[in-house]
Amino acid sequence: MNAVALLTDGSAVTVRELGAEDVSALLALHRSLPVEDRYLRFFSTSPRQLEDFVERMVSPDAPKHVVLGAFRGDRLLGAASYVVVRDTDFAEVALVVSHAEQAHGLGTLLLEHLASLARARGVRRFTAEVLTINGRMLRVFTDMGFVTGIVPDGEVMYVEILLEPGDRYLDAVSERESVADVASLTHVLRPGSIAVVGAGRSPSSVGHAVLRNLAEGDFTGDLYAVNPHAKSVAGVDCYASIEELPEAPELAVLCVPARAVPAVAEACGRRGVRALVVISSGVESTALRNAVRAHGMRLVGPNCLGVSASSSAVRMNATFSAHATLAGDIGLVTQSGGVAIAVQEELRRLGLGLSNLVSTGDKLDISSNDLLMWWSQDPGTRFAVLYLESFGNPRKFARLARRIARQKPVLAIRAATSEAGQRAAASHTASTATPSVVRDALFHQAGVIAVNSVPELTDVLMALSWQPLPRGRSVAVLSNAGGLGVLAADACVREGLRMAELSVGTVQALSTVLPTTASGCNPVDTTAVVDEQTFARCLDVIAADPAVDAVITVTVPTALGDPTGGVHPFADKPVLAVRTGQTERLAGEVPCYAEPARAAAALSRLVERAEWLARPSEFVRPTGIDLDAARRVVTGRADGWLTPDETVLLLKAFGLPVLGGTLVTTEEHAIAAQHAYDVPVALKAVADDLLHKSKGGGVELGLGDAGAVAEAFRAFQDRFGDRLRGVFVQPMAARGRELLVGIATDEKFGPLVVTGLGGVDTDVIDDRAAALAPLSTTDADDLVHGFRAAGRVLTEADAVAVRDVLLRVAELAGALPEVAELDINPLVVAETGCLAVDARVRIAPARETDPFLRQLRTS
Helix axis angle, 644-653 relative to 627-634, nearest 10°? Predict the structure, then answer.
């Protein structure tokens, strides 16, 4: 392994496995330890035969003996090692960190990487002996987040660490990563000094535009320009090279030709620059990344618009946008410079501003995950907005977004998810796992508000910025134009909102202020003759009704007046206005939309956020799971589909209700199996390339005697010939509602759990719901009720039983990455509960990955 990761001070180190060539560096590290550190490490101030000890540490004995080292440049800063105890699944662990590098999180980082590597090589526990007086080392172990046991024995503490990455561990890793990431991003988003390299004299050049925006935007730090052919540009003094600057700038913005970028980046690193923004496009990415990593710099871009910031700490517009960014509380990260400009301009028109704008471009380093961590710690950012064309680490993104969305809204403009890739579907479940389905499942579970366009984004931001969240889905429409009120009501229903039933008291109160020709029922039509004051009184009456969670007003000007001025906000209920042809902010910070459909859509997003915040988010592991038995089924298997009896063993190991059956290879054994069951049976062919048995003529049902069984068996032999590997004999299951439950695994996004109508309906009706594992109990409930026919075919008791199946299937998906696809079809749901009647499981080699390991992008 070879990874680059951040310490708590924001500096970068390289973590890699050590070998025989590292003996001298490892020996120097141990010899540099002061007496106290040496005693704590070896229980002695003068460890004997240190050279032999170090050579044994890096002997080529992996996976039994592994050492990881952390380097800054060529200097070894620390090392963590483990030795497997005999032929067990636990190992003794040790750690040594240079005294000068302690208290920066280096030891914890090394142990995280060591634990990840150990898990991938079959180690399940670490053990360690720590002196009682070594409180710092004990804290390192206990603060990691793993389940840890400590047994004191005189002057020594025996520590045991279970290497299972549960929620507590992942939360601890995420918190440590956030601290380190925010420290490193300070050089990008709050720099004390900036140099624009390639600041051209021509006003039409990109470098000139960036420098001018910084100068005219009153950048709060020191500003420099690098241009060997000019003395000054845009009023800023120029220097011939980065080396000639009077100080090392904290941030350098590179606007030089693409071929020159790697060399300039290397020069910046040698000069001590801490971060780069590379505007240039067409850059050779490997050379640029190598320069950045070699000097521990952070990088935005290349091929980007730039970055901007507005806060009490810093004002900075290091972009080539035509207009300055309005200061505000919206954080924006986007891969597309065009989208960044479009969002920026639309927000400006509405009086909304940005706290940060980061155009990631080709995102060789800094990505949306980094910005989410920054915004989670930034009180000046109330909203996080994302435009992503691809996901670098979607599982980390999902966990980050889910945590941050609890604090502040996270919004995303939907775009192509080409990283997930379309695949040839071998099962019904896999055919569901299209990029858009996977992406939308991620957004929904993480609480990300997904929109389809820039106008829809700004519509929702207006509502979130200026209005409270609704308590429910009941909406009242108040209009002075009856037809538009009806359109608003229709739009609300289309968006899944409900038209509120106004109370008798509300209707009577409205009748006292409205003309007799008005309609006091929802949608309320005031008629075109009411003035501002009357319209405002009607709004007060409607908002006071406990049955109303939100109000949409629709107004048009007439020759008799314009009641729009009567629209006003309330502290506890959202009010959204519609005024045909205008999207703006009304007095009192009421968002106003150009048409009813846009207001209804924005209100629906507010409702969804309120409901997501009210959701319990607990993850409960099902009981009765035999993981060892499950691993025995899949371990060492070649690519391909499990046999039916292997599938039954696997599902039963996870406590799933399985019908079971008998795999036979002869007609006589098939007859004997039917006789043993003493009920009518089903015969299912097990044949090469027969994936969908019903379609392929591989299923015979309701066979009640030996003759019928024999005839069906011979028919399979004739139909499939040499392809026939066996026949699975099952007792006929009781009738019930038939569902599909399955897993499709994506290399980046992880396993997707799918459910919907099963049996013959699977191919006729595309009605499914999907969610990414792991599933919270609420995620599972969403799945149960998420397909269109759920309310029609499932009772509440059915839903409880199906939820348990989904949670167990999700647990299987997370525990066994070798399971590439799983189809339970049908899952029969009857009064007695659920029963998996037929199932197929495809095994594929799982590439060992740790999506939550702290490391910077390397590809």
Answer: 150
